[in-house]
Amino acid sequence: MKLDQFLEGVFDLHCHVYPETGLEHEARLDDPGLIEAMRQAGMGGVILKSHLWPTVERAYYLQQRYPEVRIFSSLTMNRVSGGIDPLMVETAARQGAKALFFPTWQAANDLERGGFSRAIRERLPLYGGREIAGIRAADNGRLTPESEDALDVAKAFGLLVCTGHLSPGRGPAGD
What's residue 16's pLDDT? Predict the structure, then answer.
C-alpha cells in the first residue's frame, strides 16, 4: 500500500498551526503548505490546534481556500486564551470550533513536570522569568465548577474534548 492510499480520507485530530509562538520557530510547513499537502494526499480533514489562541479565523480562511479538505478549529484553555472559561468555549463553538483542549503549557501538571511550558519559557523571554500558578481542572478529585461548565458547553455543541496536559489525577490535588 502506498502512503497516499493510507492517508486517503484520514482526519488529523491534533495539528499544530504555524506560526505559533513566533516566526523564528519555523515549522516544516506553514498552514497553507500543510493543508495543500493534505489535499494532495487525499486526506479528509484536520483540526487545527494552537497553544496560544483559538484557531477559528485560520480555519475559516483556510477552508475557503481549500474547500476539498475539511478544516476545523479548536480552543485550548490556557490563560492566554481565557483559561477554563465556558464563555470562551461557547464563543469558539459558535464560530465553528469542533474541539476543546484543556490547558497544555499552563496546566499545573505541565508546569510542575517541566513539560512544554519549559519550551514556552525559552520562546517567550518576557514570560520566561515570571512565576505562574498552574491551572487545575479538578480539586480534591472533583472537577472545578468552571471545568464542569466548560464541559457542559462542549456537550451542548458536540465538541471533541481532549485532556491537554492535565495529570491523570494521581496527586493529592489532581488536575
Answer: 85
